[in-house]
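G.,

No rush on this.
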Amino acid sequence: MSEFEVLNPATEEVVEVVALASADETDAAVDRAARAFPAWRDVAPGDRARLLRAFAGKVDEHLDELAALEVRNAGHPIGQARWEAGNLRDVLHYYAAAPERLAGRQIPVPGGVNVTFAEPLGVVGVIVPWNFPMPIMGWGMAPALAAGNTVIVKPAELTPLTARRVGELALEAGLPEGVLQVLPGAGPVAGRRLVDHPDVRKIVFTGSTRVGKEIMRACAPGVKRLTLELGGKSANIVFADADLEKAAATAPYAVFENAGQDCCARSRVLVERPVYDRFLELLEPAVRGVAVGDPRDGKTEVGPLISAAHRDRVASYVPDGAPVAIRGSAPEGPGFWFPPTVLATPDFATLPAWHDEVFGPVVTVVPFEDEADAYRIANDTPYGLSGSIWTRDVGRALRASRAVEAGNLSVNSHSSVRYWTPFGGFKQSGLGRELGPDALDAFTETKNVFIAAD
């Protein structure tokens, strides 16, 4: 067993030294989950729903504790951290209603009737990233549990603390031992073993496209079920007829929230050329007004980056001589800080920050000529996760929504992710759909049975 020093990103102080599971310990967790599965599968739907509601209630009781823990572990501003803990609670409540509604179908056929059953898969591994530890844990864990699967959550090495506490709360709520386990561990060790283990029937992974491809290859020999939510390089398209004031005021939060560490970040802003200069004028005070600072302060909107290594990576996209149009502020001294930064140049195609997922508070603003040009630029990326469209023309909004190759779009808003609607990406941004009323389909197999009438 190895150990990992968990740091507070705002102070660089050690919060805790966490033991990381070995491959053998991962195997033991899978064995516990496999042994717990038959009894959990057979829990009556109403009782499973009651337990999930109790779990949600425990999260709610400890919401402030979880939020404070996330502030120390991930550097998230306290207001954001409270929202994240509340999202976990709400997702558990939402899927607590599912077990009693997990119905099959009756299909008339000659000579009898066919019936279908939605059967749980078995052991599900949920591999969680460091950028949104609580919500993303809930998005995979809650529907999997509701469908009757047992779950092993492997949090990121950098941010294991809230996941570990949530696992304790599940036991306090009455979930049986082995039904939900939280296993801190390194990706190449514990994560890889979950992917390779023959008794793990499905993997839910959120993270980089590079690692997602590796997991997809590793799942292929056993035809292991897989859901991937991967990288993004989303476009924020502003047409000349849009409410420019609102679009400019909103744009910083579409990319700088969570310090830009968001796969849905709208990090490419496309502005129709006649209003390009005016948009930049309106954008400047909005960027400079973003409150970057101590995440414990309720007024803070943006905290630090997750680590020194990640800060260096983000900084590499804004080298000396980069076309910086607007730069916000960030604290000096300890902490992995980086100021909100806007790049603007007609030669945007040469910028690595235009093509790559920076995963930090860096956005590029470029002009476009017309609708066709906007769609061409927006779709010129291997990613297709999210995006926004700003226009007062309803017809154009509908055309753009069909033309932009992304799984989650919003019109005149930067918000498109809700736990009661489908979530997932196009192209190299993912595989499968999480969330929404059909999420349990991803955690069940359809069994078809013919019953002869004579």
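When you get to it, here's the other one too:
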Amino acid sequence: MADAAKSRGDLTQGNIGPTLLRFAIPTLASSILQSLNGTINAIWVGRFLGEHALAATSNANMVMFLLTAFVFGFGMASTILIGQYWGRKDVDEARKIFGTAAGAFGLITIFIAIAGWYLSPAILHALGTPGDAEQLALEYLRVIFLAMPALLLLTLLMMALRGAGDSLTPLWFMIVAVILDSGLNPVFILGLGPAPQMGISGAATATLIANYAALIGLLIYMYAKDLPLRLRGRELCYLWPNFTILRTIVAKGLPMGIQMVVISMSALALVSLVNREGVDTTAAFGVAMQLWTYVQMPAMALGAAVSAMTAQNIGAGRWDRVNPITRSGITYTVLITAALVVVLTLADRTVLALFMGSDSPALPIARHIHVLATWNFVLFGVTMVLFGTVRANGAVWAPLIILAVGLVGVRFGWIFATYDRLGANALWTSFPVASAVNMLLAVAYYFKGNWRKAQLRVDGPPSDDECIEEAQATREPGGALNPAG
């Protein structure tokens, strides 16, 4: 059984280019599905409940994004750790890391759900939610917080499976979540069939049901198919968090979570500057950002795939494959992203008109923004692949610092220095300028930095007997909870 587990998801053998692409495509498909799900749900809410409800969900979704960003960081750290031990063919150690991550963050997500329910009014007030949307946002956000344990744990499990070389299973259960969420939205919003009419809380209830169903389904599938990371018998004690492992996950995951927050905060600050240009420019920028969500996906998916594949090869001591993996990732990212940019440029009027009327005064502005800014994602893609490689060996602070320099210092420095001369074009040209600086710094760090000397491993993990003793020592007097139910 152990030998069979070791042979699954092995990214240390075979032709690098095709292996990387096969691994990255399901991750890319998952990202596209997630974005489409958000777009479809926004359409349901906007069409059935109006602008106030749409504004309410936007405020609540901002909270959800920030929480998911932190889990992304810790999930990525777990993915890399699992990948390195998987590359060493140490299945048991990979399961210990998975157990600690799932057990610890399972408890944390329950706390988030309870605290979020009671703190939702204060959170919405702090966000400055408009008064006429505040009650709707409260109804929506409270149910979303109840969905958080499933949503965050599902994300963590999917990332852990990718660390073990399995990117296809997460895709199937992302499809389950998206179909249920998108399909149940109108059912609970309008009260179709036997379902109660719940309005905006129905949209959140659909998300809740979809994510719990996908999480339960994924767990059942992991055991039914005997996937390598499932925990059985004595291994269930790995769900009691080992603090040595947890400390490593937190230390490496925190910078990656902060990175996501830096990206979102930079975007929010930029939106506040765009708003000063008038409603047409704001609308045009909003449409451009909708397109950019999809344009940047190949870079994000390939960066994550490179990270998982590099982690396994570093764990296996196959440093000879690290540079070729990085080159393949950069090549695929540049080709795919450039092709998307070219296609969108040739059909920009048609594509942009999907979001606004063909006679909209915002359409020429959106086309102008697209021409000046969208190609920056080619540079962004190179940076994401390089970051994916260095993170695979535990170098997580340098990528955070480089992104902060580019997205905060360079971007806003450029805007304030050139706005008197360029006007609104200072905003749009700040994208390629910041991306160029980030890419150059990332290239310099890849070739000259000390990331190859970093070590991402857990020191002194407990033995099976120590793990069982720890689990028994922390039992309640009345007996222990059975992880198997």
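The radius of gyration is 23 Å. Confidence is low (pLDDT under 50) at residues 1-6, 460-485.

Enjoy the weekend,
O.
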